[in-house]
Amino acid sequence: MTAKIINGKEIAAKKRIEIGEEVKQLKAKVVIPGLAVILVGNNHASRTYVNIKQKACEELGMYSLLIEMPEETKEEELLAKIEELNGDPKIHGILVQLPLPKHIDEKKVIETIIPAKDVDGFHPINIGRMMTGQNAFLPCAPYGIMVLLEESGISVSGKNAVVVGRSNIVGKPIGQLLLNQNATVTYCHSKTKDLKLHTTQADILIVDVRIANFIKAEHIKEGAIVIDVGINRNEAGKLCGDVAFDEVSEKAGYITPVPKGVGPMTITMLMYNTLKSAKESLR
Length: 283
Ligand SMILES: Nc1nc2c(c(=O)[nH]1)N[C@@H](CN(C=O)c1ccc(C(=O)N[C@@H](CCC(=O)O)C(=O)O)cc1)CN2
Prior knowledge:
By secondary structure, the protein is α/β, with parallel strands linked by helices. The chain has helices at residues 8-28, 44-59, 75-86, 106-112, 124-131, 140-151, 171-180, 195-199, 245-249, 262-280, and strands at 4-5, 34-40, 63-69, 93-96, 160-164, 184-188, 204-207, 225-228, 232-233, 239-240, 254-255. It has two domains: 29-116, Leucine Dehydrogenase, chain A, domain 1 (Rossmann fold); 139-262, NAD(P)-binding Rossmann-like Domain (Rossmann fold). It has a six-stranded parallel beta sheet. Strands 3-2-4 form a three-stranded parallel beta sheet, with helices on both faces. Strands 9-10 form a two-stranded antiparallel ribbon. Strand 2, helix 2 and strand 3 form a beta-alpha-beta unit. Helix 1 packs parallel to helix 10 (262-280). It is globular and about 50 Å long. The structure holds the ligand Nc1nc2c(c(=O)[nH]1)N[C@@H](CN(C=O)c1ccc(C(=O)N[C@@H](CCC(=O)O)C(=O)O)cc1)CN2. Ligand LMY7XDAE is lined by residues 48-49, 52, 95-98, 120, 140-141, 169, 231, 239, 258-260, 263-264, 266-267. Pathway: One-carbon metabolism; tetrahydrofolate interconversion.
């Protein structure tokens, strides 16, 4: 079997046209969706992602504000900036790019963003609402994965979904979103005793471990749907995922590539969440 490629870039482009149309309609009501992105320090990858976010805002006609703070920024300075943005009516979404420098408490930072502007969906209030199936901002990468599955005509209900990785921003929430749609979910992580025992049972396998080529053909079931969230560089410095794409795509039913898989959908769902926040500000 050769897997169908789930093209995240194409699906993201389709979704962005829909978002762009809604932005135009909102502008007719004199509301321009506004996103503030805070970048602390000099992480090279973070700067790339922030630039992609700004470009996406521009393309969709949204207002974007980039706040750059030096590596040595004090935690209270960052919290004060967030408080200021919480009260700024031009800003509908606030995002602090992660990871943060070690001396800053990530949890405190996330909890300082008001839930109504938490377009990353990381605030405990939004996570609690997601878990209980209420209206919430959903974390962008997991939300993007759910849209990729839906747009590929894949029904989740009743399927065995295995999540490898348990980060707060991808692993834990994607398991919850799959459960919300009636999948049977198993979480695997660094202490899982026999990884292959679990992954070979997966109808849907989600991988976010940040180790290049970690999942091989022997880890998957014939025809499985494989979603690769990892972003790594291989020995040649080329961007690659956590899944050994060439061998796994010979056995899987569907697979996402890296790049052009989950990444573009992460940005698209951020735009969607910012639009949602702007719409909700009219209520
Ligand atoms: N506050 C947040 N911080 C981080 C998040 C997040 O959702 N919110 N997620 C990741 C990084 N991330 C978004 O910030 C992100 C990573 C990758 C991509 C992407 O489009 N990747 C491209 C390749 C880009 C490249 O050339 O490197 C792809 O996969 O095609 C988008 C967003 C950690 N931090």
